[in-house]
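Recall that a protein's primary structure is simply its ordered list of amino acids. Everything else, from secondary elements to tertiary packing, is in principle encoded there. The following example makes that idea concrete.
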Amino acid sequence: MIPRRFLLAMPALATPARAQVPPVRIGWLTAQREASLATFIPALRLGLAERNLVEGRDIEILFRFGDDSMARVPDLLGDLLRAQVRVLVVQGAAVAQVVRGRPPVPVAFVVSSDPVAAGLAESLSRPPAGVTGITFLSAELNAKRVELLRELRPHMTRLAVLSNPTHPGDALEREAVEGAAARLGLAVQFHHARTAEELQTALAGIAAGQAEAITVFSDGFALQNRAAIARFAMDRRMPLAAGWRAFAEAGALLSYGPRLDDSYRRLAHFVARILRGTPPEDMPIERPRVFELAVNLQTAAAIGTPVPTSLLARADLVLE
């Protein structure tokens, strides 16, 4: 249970007394750069407004960005705690560090990894005291992306997989790809990258292995390097599939996975309930609710891979 001092009684917004109550402070903490999350923060704000939590009237959001430095997270966290935030909204790689430190305020997180594999929860239905949130991970969708690549290249026999081995959930994603590849008779080459140097080595290995298509496991590192990965695939006329729309927008042939804007908007649900007194651990960690297929026709033309009409008909977004 959350200590009583962290619970917030939210008076009815229509009462005259509400104007005398100062906005409640919400802390936003991430190790990423602000620009990398520019499209998602408005979705969170929209979700909060939909729940009658309006910035400047009901809430004040204190944003802290680590500019791609995990080393800055403890200082940024301390800054937010000194500012007496009532709830912490933690994003990405910073989640594990913050949750394991057991901060004295409730946490609502959003993360691409598997919270169970990361040791952050016993199960999605049983988050630890004071913590809940959303995971983007849907390992089974990796199998669907393999099937989509095979639909685009029916005679493909060799598939390359690019992943970050330190990303919790990597083993689940690998298992899903191996199962799909076995069903389709594909040989799979796994290439790992955690740093810029390892990425160059992995891409060189993919080129040497003569793979006919690439799928990438989506996480923060891959997202930051999506343009370079897409350019590599395009230069070699290889279809590239990933899990998030940002990859298709960067030049991947397709993406199929959670609609991240929807997940960030949904995150407001947890924040609102925490502020109104619900213990975070009473709310199970959620998986994505809405999925989307994006196809980049410019890339398809550039690499000489026609996109079947049947696949285009299923696409939620077609980039031309």
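The chain is about 35% helix and 20% strand. The longest strand covers residues 24-30.
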